[in-house]
Amino acid sequence: MARLVDVIEDMIKEMIDENDGIATINRSQLASQANCVPSQITYVLSTRFSSGQGYIVESRRGGGGQITVTRVEFVNKFEYLKEMIDAIGNAVTQQQAKNLLEGAVTSGAITHRDGEIIMSAVSDRALGLVESDIRSKVRAQIMKNLLLALISE
Hints:
Number of strands: 3
Radius of gyration: 16 Å
Distance between the termini: 40 Å
Oligomer: single chain
Strand content: 5-15%
């Protein structure tokens, strides 16, 4: 059985595909369709639809929970990887790293093998000796450096 976050992600992606790369979502209505609370929609949007994954998410103040999600087509892999590095910021969790890498593989910015290698290097298992309070910061630095290496190839 699919996890709820995966179901919500698929629903949003289907809406985007049906509308030529742009979907306007009403958070409450989508939550009702997915049989969840609106905060779960917000969680999926923030973890699965970031700029590093090829999306722009805009919420409208006072718009009754309306959110516009736009799929961005990147000109080349270097542009994508630069956006991805910006999206990583100063810290990144293992799940966020996984989501970013899956987006990069899907977009063709990196190979599946490169994604697996980077994920291995930044996994909680690989960083097990790093204290948990700084692990996300160390992960971000390693990930950015590996992506920079791919940019310079």
